[in-house]
Design goal:
Bound molecules: (R)-mevalonate
Helix content: 40-55%
Structural class: alpha+beta
Largest sheet: 4 strands, antiparallel
Shape: globular
CATH topology of the largest domain: 3-hydroxy-3-methylglutaryl-coenzyme A Reductase, Chain A, domain 2
Distance between the termini: 63 Å
Radius of gyration: 27 Å
Number of helices: 15
CATH class of the largest domain: Alpha Beta
CATH superfamily of the largest domain: 3-hydroxy-3-methylglutaryl-coenzyme A Reductase, Chain A, domain 2
Order of helices and strands: HHHEEHEEHHEEHEEHHHEEHHHHH
Length: about 450
Amino acid sequence: MAQKTGKFVSGFSKLSKREKLSWLARHFFNANPLDAVREFGSFWHSNIESQKLFDGISENVITNFYLPYCVAPNFLINGKAYCVPMVIEESSVVAAASSGAKFWHSKGGFQTEVISTTKVGHVHFCWQGEPFNLFAFFDQLKAIMLEGVKHITTNMERRGGGVKNVEILHLPEIEQDYYQIKVEFETCDAMGANFINSVLEAFAEILIKEIRENVDFADEQKEVQVIMSILSNYTPSCVVRSQVSHPISELGKLKGGMEPEAFAEKFVRAVKIARNDVYRATTHNKGIFNGIDAVIIATGNDFRAIEACGHAYACRNGKYQSLSNAYIENGLLFFELEVPLAIGTVGGLTTIHPLAKRSLELLGNPSARELMGVIASVGLAQNFAAVKSLVTTGIQFGHMKMHLSNILLQLEADQSEMDKAFAYFQDKTISFTAVRVFLSKLRDGEGQFAY
Ligand code: MEV
């Protein structure tokens, strides 16, 4: 039996925002409820209309959670210059993306290719009967289904999208009587989740009705059990590739004095490890999604869908592998990323969130296909910068600089203290305590001994 905690609440969603906050403060911040209310409230937008908009985006909203909105300049993609918006809390990510972009800017930039843009969904159902009879009926059923969703698809068709393919699959290895109606969609510039799910649910209703009314089926075959109708976030046919390449001899000396040939060889080896070792592949791909997720969030897209799909795609050859690949051919270093990106530039949050709209404007209001190329290029730049650091200076070199600057900010160091700290910690181990001790000595006038 559930324990009575006094914290159970019903009808919470019906309370006003102030009432929700007050309930929360009384039950979970009872040491100082007023402080909690004040702090949560201090993040409300000063413009009431703007706050209303944010309140409407989700459920049980009590305040806003700020994340840094950053930009990475110098991206040259298919010959076009971009300054890319990135929403992310990890300090080194934007620096790494920018450095990757800058590195490739003078070397021709990123070339992208949208391989395909097909999205997919299924009606999952069970039916007891001879599979052959169902397959024989399917062509007729398919025509009725397509006709029956015209009211949903007409607009999308006008834009060049709609239902592209419908097929039936029998999967007895899962359950003897289990089938799927697999539907492929083109949703143009929309992510298309609502469109896809509406079509699938309409298909399911038609399926039930048509089988019930089919005079050729025996009574016990007239019942279909629809388990569910839902899009799949696995979109292996909604894929984009971004690539960079350059003569190795013209890459220039790398940080730490490494020759370009030695760098290229080590770089390719590092990527090969990520293609073959799951421990490294996971971290390698995490680095790619550092960049991808940040742009996905900034443009109002769904980062959970993108991540889920990306990791499933990384397993498409039977084991989890890196999403990027690197190789040397005819003296050139090639580095490329192939990643599924089912995204949109119209509808959903992309048209509600004022900063998502600004992000798209910053990118020149791209089509979904163009945005796929931009996002894949940011993932590749991110990955390049991370692996480049790893095989040259080591990752802590750059990270620690960021870490130091965060600690200094927390300790409210001024510019002159920061400059001194950066000089002092150049060859020393950075920790919060070490920085605090350094600053307090500096502030006590012992600075001349500290660095
Ligand atoms: C850190 O957020 C991401 C990296 O670990 C990625 C990588 O190791 O490739 C630096």
